[in-house]
Amino acid sequence: MASYTFWRLVQGLVILKLVLVCVFLLLHLTGDPAAVLAPVDATEQDITRIRRELGLDTPLHVQYARFFAGAIRGNFGRSFEHEQPAFWIVMEHLPATLELTAAAFFFSVAVGIPLGCLAAYKENSLFDRVGIGWAVVAQAVPDFWLALMMIMVFSVFLGALPAFGRGGLAHLVMPAFAASTFQAARLARLMRSEMLEVLRREYILTARSKGLSEKMVLFRHALKNSSIPIVTVLGLDLGILLGGTVIIETVFAWPGVGRLTVQAIYHRDFPVVQTAVFVLAAGFVFINLAVDILYRALDPRIEYR
Amino acid sequence: MKRVGWLLVFLLPLALFSAGAHAAPKGKITAAYGGEPETFDPHTGTSSPILTVHNNVFDNLVTINPRTGDVVPQLAESYKAVSPTTWEFKLRRGVKFTNGEPVDAAAVKFSIERIIDPKTKSRQIGYFSTIKSVEAVDAHTVRIHTKAADAVLLKQLTVYGFIAPPKYYSSHPADYLATRPIGSGPYKLVRWRKHEEMVLEANPNYMDPKVPYFKTAVIKFIPEAATRVAGLVSGDLDFAEGVPPQMVELIKRNPKVEAVNFLQPRSSGLLFVTTKGGPMGNVKVRQALNHAVDVDSIVKNVLKGHGRKVPVFQTEGTFGYTEDVKTYPYDPAKAKAMLAEAGYPNGFETDLLVPVGRFFLGKEVSEAIGGYLEKVGVKAKVKPLEWGAMVRIIRARHQPEVKPFLYYLARFFFILDGDQAYEGWFSSKSAFGSFKDPEVDQILAEGRSTTDPQKRLAVYHRLNQVIKEKAPMIFLFQEGTINGKKKDIDWRPRINGFPLVRDAAGK
Hints:
The complex is a heterodimer of chains A (305) and B (507). Chain A is 77% helix and 0% strand. Chain A is mainly α and 305 residues long. Chain A has a domain at 86-298: MetI-like fold (Orthogonal Bundle), CATH 1.10.3720.10. In chain A, helix 7 (143-157) packs across helix 8, helix 10 (214-243) packs antiparallel against helix 13 (270-298) and helix 12 (257-266) packs antiparallel against helix 13 (270-298). The longest helix of chain A is centred in the middle third of the chain and has 36 residues, at 86-121. The relative contact order of chain A is 0.14. The model of chain A has no long low-confidence stretch (mean pLDDT 88). In chain B, strands 1, 8, 9, 10, 11, 12, 13, 14, 15, 16 and 17 form an 11-stranded mixed sheet that branches. A 4-stranded antiparallel sheet of chain B has the order 4-5-7-6, covered by helices on one side. In chain B, strands 2-3 form a two-stranded antiparallel ribbon. Chain B is an alpha+beta fold and 507 residues long. Chain B is built from 16 helices and 19 strands. In chain B, helix 9 (283-292) packs antiparallel against helix 11 and helix 14 packs antiparallel against helix 15 (438-449). Chain B folds into 2 domains: 2-13 and 24-221 and 487-506, Periplasmic binding protein-like II (D-Maltodextrin-Binding Protein, domain 2, 3-Layer(aba) Sandwich); 264-481, Roll (Dipeptide-binding Protein, domain 3). In chain B, strand 4 and strand 5 (86-91) form a beta hairpin. At the A-B interface, helix 2, helix 3, helix 5, helix 7 and helix 12 of A face helix 6, helix 7, helix 13 and helix 14 of B.
């Protein structure tokens, strides 16, 4: 187990290194930051000066070497725009993203799993049809539209929730809900089909025939056995939420890493983009590692080598 | 504002009683902008969020009259050109920065020198490239010496060149200064949470006792326009910048708020890559295409009336504008005839590049233009691009394998000067323009070096004629903008287009 964890960590580091290489190269393919950062009335001379100031006048392999030498020591360079170390800026935005991710994740689990389980248990009932019907619609609704509609209903017409910004629980409800709807719906559908399959297995029949209560059958046997694919999906979902709430962050003016990163991409603020991608990728790798370790708790037959 | 409203009712008799004496700043205003300053260092950035927000904390030597646009003293008490290459500023006495340092000649010298010092890596440096030296004559007199006569410098100083306290700015590292500004302006920055909000608190010792009106100003940064409008209508905001035309109805339905239209000193056009010959190198073709586009109809139907056709690139209210230059009338038959005369009876094919999400309805306007050009035989393929991607193509325009193209750009003439309208794109030194013409270069240089305002005005009148004839772009329109605000707030953007918190007041 310990050596497995160690090797997974090494794998994770290799992945992170590859991510950094890709981000570095892709960004440099998108064009000259100096020209994007210069005022629109700049002269050729201004652009040459900015390029030199940002260290972009050296050959690509030199920039690459310098970037990696820094990154290994945790120094991701200074933001081209904010005049501060890129790492600070990303860290400043991380709590907001974690808060939104955690809340959205909680919502999607709290809605998706019970809905899926109950729908499977009461297959073809009205509850099943309405619930899964909702899930199909919810998966198809664009989050941008949903977010704006929620603002119109809950902020403008009802005046119940603040339309933007980060603050208390009231600020969190709409962004978290909008960010989690797709995941909750997908989770419900997946949970339902996994559960249906498990409920048809012989050991469930055995469990029932030996007189276990329905509660026991459902929670102790069916839920646990159908949860392995669900845990995988949850792990992926968490990663997606972590890096994929850009639109929600923009609509609700949520001060998170996603919004920071998109703006940094538009402005070709390479150090900030590189740092943000690194931090999010590290989060993703860590979550996947945690998921793999969780498997064992759920199914002792899985071996680690 | 709800609370402020009640406070006003309560205090009204008191205010009437003490009419004449000025009341101290009170209450709170919450305003939302789309863009956020990248830094709060006053001397490095050039973006329009920076220019909209920094002046709450900092003052300039000179500023503009918000309604007429005339240059008026701010930290300076008076100014004059003592020679063609020397500007002299007499400073107001007794003004202090909020950390107690005096606003004196040394502070002015320090601030300007900090911008032009290459170590600062300032992107404002280009606007002060003619400065040779800054001389502190005595504690309250400063002279700026330039290498050559520079008539534009004074205008640049209305927007750039904030005066900052030397001891503070020379004793802290750049990382620290980027978020902790200290100036002499009407507000002090209390808190800044990036991508969220800035909280400003009135400077009790501000040199103008009438400013600011509000004791606390909260500036929210909300990128999505629909969310800003929602915040205004739901009562969380007192002011929202940039209302989309289709949301004006929502504002009208609420009796407490209103939408205010404003014509900005900002103009749009389609630039030709003229430097590679072909049809776009031919002035007849360029003039013909100016006749081919029905700009009035685009303003009416695409912009829903929020704009005005311009004869040349400059807009009314900017120095050098003249009504003598008439617009190219919409006349597709004439356009076709001129194209035939120039040797293109069947038109030609080209790309029309437009940045997405950068200019007011840029993509929709470009699509309309594509339709008009098609009618005279010019097949312009509209290509909406991300700004950085478009900059990349523009920067490659002189390379042999790149075919000439049309590109949509807009400019904001916030120093209200003809030089800002034309130098940036029509001088042969421009990094983004594609027009090289010795006559235009010569007139631009003359405009910069003529310090006598009357003579200078004549130079720009001539330049406007020349630019119109040579048609380096399809001239389009001056852009309108809509802001939303609570009715009990008195707040208009300045004539140079900036809605400044320091100008806001209650009613």
